[in-house]
Amino acid sequence: MISKFFEVFNNLDNAQLKELEFFNDFPKSKLSKSQKELFKNLIDDKRQHITHNEHSFKKKYWKNKTIADWNKNKTAFQKVIDRFLLTVLHENTFWGNYLLISYFHDHHLEKNFNLLWTKCVKKASEFVSSTSMEKIELYLLYELKTQKKRHDRNPKRKDYLLKSEQNLDAFYALQKLRLACEQLNRQKIIGKSNHTKLDADIIKLLCLKLKDIPEIQLYYNIYRLLLHPKKEEYYNNSFKLIYDFNINFSKDIIIDTVELLMNYCIRNFAQVKYTNHFRIHIEFLEKNNYLLVDSLIDIHSYNNYLAICLIQNDLEKADYVVKKYSRKIFPKELAKHAEALGKLRYYLYMLDIKKCWEIIMKISVDDKTYNFAIDKIYLQLYYFDRDHIGFDHKLRAIRRKLDKEKKLNLVARNNLRHFITVLNKDIKNKEINIENYKSKLSPLDYAWLKKALKTNEQHNLCNIEKIS
């Protein structure tokens, strides 16, 4: 059973933990020295992704001590959390300030109203381009100002009205575009979308009206790219906007739009331009500390980052990705398999077959999708060892699975069939031109096969020379 204190504490993110640690050291935390040390242990554990309930925490830190003392400490900790969250709410959120501004407005406290209003507008406008949330904040602020000046005939009131309307339009346009992009992006995966012609007409009208707002034009180009994926000018326009360093896009917009462009690059990995651009995008996120969430990397980002380095034969960077991120993958339930698979792929591209055997013999997988990947690597290892019996046995097993199970999508199944065809022909010394299969293989498989076939050819030449 999780107490109220642990339920709240376990939901704090890393940024909040850092603030809480500072708060813990100040007198306003009202903790004794021993309580502060105990509380710090709790924070350190959470940073290491160790979450406690009351039982596990007492077992680790409260051995041979009384329940009464524990309850006293738990109450003190709960008060710290309560005071901390109230402080954060007062100091860091728009809504606390907005309630105060509304109070000043309703009670005709002109000076207080103007001072806090100006501060909030400045904060919400600090990015040249803002998120949709900041647009609604600005709308609400200007709407308050408009209401305050409703009997004022001064031309400045018209300016407040205009800004109120513009920010409302911008908020709606950004929300509409963001959701439309997500729907169209998912359509590529699930094959359907609820995006209608009416949605498209509304978006077009809004974006034409708001053509001077960079974030709206950025999303609008990505939106049109998703509607018309062969029109590369929309991709190019989006790329230029994101990397125009005169435009200071907010963190949320950068992460969202760069990930949409990365998905487009993944679908076009066969073109060198998009493999290069994917690397630019992911390293841009990494450089700006946007790649990790709470010190963890999404499994797809990890797999794709490693894949792009292998495709480009940048084994030094691939080694860096494996060493830096393989222990930071989320979700946790897939992390172990992803870490093992990532290392196997890296050593396969290094052609370090001995290391691959060491890793793969320790793997036990019950996930059917991962089983395909592991079976494929077994086939590659038998191929390199020239183990014809092991190779033929695994080849038949993979083909049976492909016919029987539908865990892989059609493109992945076809790619795998062509991959095993190439290996099968080469191990049987049949003539093969790898270039004929370039469009039929995944870029990752194509890159590996070119290297493997070349190595095997050199190996055969050496054997012929020895025999001669």
Could you list the spans in which at least 5 consecutive residues all have pLDDT below 50?
463-468
Count the strands? 2
Mean pLDDT: 82
Based on helices, strands and strand pairing, what is the structural class?
Answer: mainly alpha
Shape: flat
Fraction of residues in β-strands: under 5%
Tell me roughly what share of residues is in helical segments: over 70%
User: Describe the biggest sheet?
Assistant: 2 strands, parallel
The topology string of helices and strands comes to HHHHHHHHHHHHHHEHHEHHHHHH
Question: Would you kindly provide a written description of the structure presented here, covering whatever features stand out?
Answer:
The structure is a single chain. The chain is mostly helical and 468 residues long. It is 74% helix and 1% strand. It is built from 22 helices and two strands. The protein has helices at 4-9, 14-25, 33-47, 54-61, 67-92, 94-106, 110-124, 132-148, 155-190, 197-209, 214-227, 232-242, 251-267, 272-287, 299-311, 315-325, 332-349, 353-360, 368-385, 388-404, 410-427, 443-467, and strands spanning 297-298, 329-330. Strands 1-2 form a two-stranded parallel sheet.
Brief rundown of the structure:
With 468 residues, the protein is mostly helical.
Blueprint of the fold:
Blueprint lengths: L3 H6 L4 H12 L7 H15 L6 H8 L5 H26 L1 H13 L3 H15 L7 H17 L6 H36 L6 H13 L4 H14 L4 H11 L8 H17 L4 H16 L9 E2 H13 L3 H11 L3 E2 L1 H18 L3 H8 L7 H18 L2 H17 L5 H18 L15 H25 L1
Parallel strand pairs: 1-2
Helix pairs in contact: 2-3, 5-6, 6-7, 6-8, 7-8, 8-9, 9-10, 9-11, 11-12, 11-13, 12-13, 13-14, 14-15, 15-16, 15-17, 15-22, 16-17, 17-18, 17-19, 18-19, 19-20, 19-21, 20-21, 21-22
